[in-house]
Amino acid sequence: MVNFSWRGSCLPPAILVLFAQAGIPRVLADALNTSTTIGIYNTSHTPSNLPWDTYNYCNGPHVNAAYYVLPESHTPGVKGSTLVYVNSMMRHHKRTPDNLYPSERALNPPSGWNCTDFIQMEYAGGAAQVYHETVIPSWHPFASQIWAGSCDEGHLTVEGLADAIQHGKDFWSVYHDTLGFLDNVSEDELYVHATYELLTQQVASGVLYGMNPTTVDRRVPIYAQPELIDAFVPAYACPAADAIRTAYQSVPAWSDHLVQHQALQDHLAEMLGVQGISAWLSWYDHFFDTFTSRTCNDHPLPCNASGACVTWEEAETVFGIGDWEYNYIWNAAQNASTYNSLTFSVAFEELSMNFKRFRAGNETHKMRFYVAHDGSMIRLMSGLGFGKVAPLRWPELGSEIVMEVWRDASADQHVRVMFQGTPFPSLEWVPLNDFISLLDASVVQNVFETCNTSSSSS
């Protein structure tokens, strides 16, 4: 099965809630039922019979020369505008699961996961050029906790690297080949920022290689913040934000969806050995991760030692619930915007500073390029107001938001936000000052003190 669409007489409740929050009447949602493709979850390649920008969790649509449109195509009166500055953020590409079942090895084929397809370079400059390989001895007393093979959890796969390289080619086809904006992959033109996670740094290297294969013989800096304070994961502690999220996940708007799907959760928990483990049962994040990591990397859905397997229909339901949860947590819940601002305030501040630096004529790079995670993307989507246009979905692997600054014939500067490779409605042509104000709206003053003050959760 290539694409994922809901079947039956009506859409699943989780999807109906999404439609309702978007203002789509149930009668229309039902009418959309069998003909609407909800998304793709088992291949990086969107079938040719579907729109090129169909939601593809395995490899999100992004800017590319074949479908890129100039501002004048969407916005009358801007003919002759020139691209002058870009900030872009993307999610990493395919990886192994980030979450492991207590008896992970028993739920995988005997061959396990293979990560020897590409060399994992990791060495200090001026020292021996070493690389590492993950070794999982079959005799290890704790081997049952991880699959067989040569992959760690959250490990970039060779398929993910291939997607990252192609992503770089697509990006270059627009900003070099089509627009002539970037001249080369060099530090004076391009500032690259990843997170402390090796995964995002490897994806950044793949993207850079796709942009220009000569980078394979060059040293290109990729900047990252320390794990303790990394703003783009985000990783810094914020007890006040935690309290806010706990509060809105303790009300019927949240708890009812868990009750509604209790039979499915009980069935999956028993089959996969996670009964009584709160991290698995308080939401569907872990199930979503372990299912999509398998299907996107051409692995079967998990089967236990008795031969019971997760079915595709069960996985589909989890995908729909996952979308509902992500939209609720970061967009629809009461105080979600406050939670979002607190946890991503530092990232919004850095982005705002970038555009202010450009506005003042002090920017030293043509483009700033960030590689981060799903939690990064969903917060940026929410802060930019995407959730006011339509319910948010779980950010795809390789999903991308590009913030372009164009200067028109009158020397006025406007921002155009590209999402899934196309201009985003309501952010197609925003005055630069207004866009900076939009970013600043999610910046919390004295965020360190606010995060660590319990009264801010009220």
TrEMBL record:
Entry GO MF terms = phosphatase activity
Which top-level group of life is the source organism from?
Eukaryota
Assigned protein family: Belongs to the histidine acid phosphatase family.
- Pfam families under this entry? His_Phos_2
Sorted UniProt keywords: Signal
Q: Which residues form the signal peptide?
A: 1-29
Name of the featured protein: Phosphoglycerate mutase-like protein
